[in-house]
Input
Amino acid sequence: MAVTIGHYEHKLDSKNRLAIPPKYREALIAEKGSHFTLALGIDDCITLFLPSQWENYLNSLNQEIRAYKNRSQARAIKRHIFQSAVEAPLDSQGRVLVPQNLKDHAKLTKDVVVTGVGDKAEIWDRKNWEKYHKTQAIPSFQKLAKDLDL
Output
């Protein structure tokens, strides 16, 4: 399975198309995949999966859901995730179409970032990412690094 890393700044065009970073496009080709999968992300972002990453996510999610005691909530979670997920093929210019419902979920404006998080990538509105990174990611990293003596 490919590991998704890096931080890329892009612009969403007027038709909600987003250029996918070349390294991610290369990974899709290496997997002989025909599309990425876009889905709801946590913390006001969109998750972007390579085919192998989506398959691993599904397996992990299904295991977690089966172990979850509240069956009604488990069904609701699955419905919420899968009703919004879409297959996102690349166009001839290496872009994917971001559906309006996912754009609204992530509060995307024109300026976005695509950031790798290992087992997937995330698409964020640039201002929301900068705020999250400053107030959540950096302090969490500093605390964990200190606790683990990294």
Observations:
- The longest helix spans residues 126-148.
- The two ends are 26 Å apart (CA to CA).
